Amino acid sequence: MGLSDLVYRLYERRIRRRLDRSRVPGHVAVLMDGNRRWARAFGAPTSSGHQAGAEKARQFLGWCDDLDVNVVTLWMLSTDNLHRSEDELVPLLGIIENLVDDIASTGQWRVHPVGALDLLPDRTATVIKQAADRTRDVDGMHVNVAVGYGGRHEIADAVRALLHEHAAQGASLEEVAETITVEGIAEHLYTKGQPDPDLVIRASGEQRLSGFMMWQSANSEYYFCEALWPDFRQVDFLRAVRSYTERERRFGH
Questions:
Q1: Catalytic residue at 81?
Q2: Which of 188, 199, 231, 247 lies most in the core, judged by the most C-beta atoms within 10 Å?
Q3: What whole-number distance in Å separates Cα of residue 90 and Cα of residue 188?
């Protein structure tokens, strides 16, 4: 172990010891950004960046579990990403399939799909659905896998589902209009029944949400980290959690 590694290890332990565990976020959502830039920096294929990002996601879930986080949302693939070239998209989907299958195979965590599965290739959608089915009765940390996810798309899907539900019951247009409330839409989101994210983390230095959980993150706390996702370390995660525990949450006030 090098000197810098030792220093970081000691720093990690110090932060961990001083964390107020009673204020750890219950739901952490993360934008796993920077995989392509990471690969480019090494002159490596883009797929190697996505693979490194998948390995980091596995580590990240372990870190969250260690702090007794209840829900984690991993944004793996946006609806916009579905328009990337086939040369990049096909390997990326394979990496995502393996990651989701690995998460389910641990038997520790419950997998929940968050995204428009109908937009995904059949194989990818099937892997995600099977992972959710296999872990349905698991009592551990809840892991949302956001694949084929877009915030605007989610809200449109929620409103559409709400309208279909009431139309099927024979409601008139006026009656349906009365049901379009904040609560009604929330009940049809991909994350229905879950708490909204307390902390949203974005790697790679970008300071924007790019439409991620637009509805759910209205009162979330944000933490932006300069590290590209494959370089995101446990000490970066602990800093994010420490920052969260030190804030006074105002919930929009």
A1: yes
A2: 199
A3: 30
Asked, for residue 51, whether it belongs to a domain, the answer is yes
- In this structure, is residue 231 part of a structural domain? yes
Active-site annotation holder among 81, 101, 102, 231 = 81
Q: Is 210 annotated as a binding residue?
A: yes
Residues facing residue 185 across a β-bridge? none
Q: Model pTM?
A: 0.94
33 catalytic per annotation: yes
202 is in an annotated binding site: yes
Tell whether 93 is covered by a domain: yes
4 pLDDT tier (thresholds 50, 70, 90): confident
* pLDDT tens string 43-100: 999 999 999 999 999 999 999 999 999 999 999 999 999 999 999 999 999 999 999 9
What pLDDT, on the 0 to 100 scale, is given for residue 13?
Answer: 86
Let me know: does 216 contact 191? Beta carbons within 8 Å.
Answer: yes
Q: Name the active-site residue from 33, 196, 198, 236.
A: 33
Q: What is the CATH number of the domain that holds 218?
A: 3.40.1180.10
* 50 is annotated as contributing to ligand binding: yes
Q: Is residue 252 part of a domain?
A: no
What is the residue range of 81's domain? 24-151+196-235
Q: 13: Cβ–Cβ under 8 A, 6 or more apart, which residues? A: none
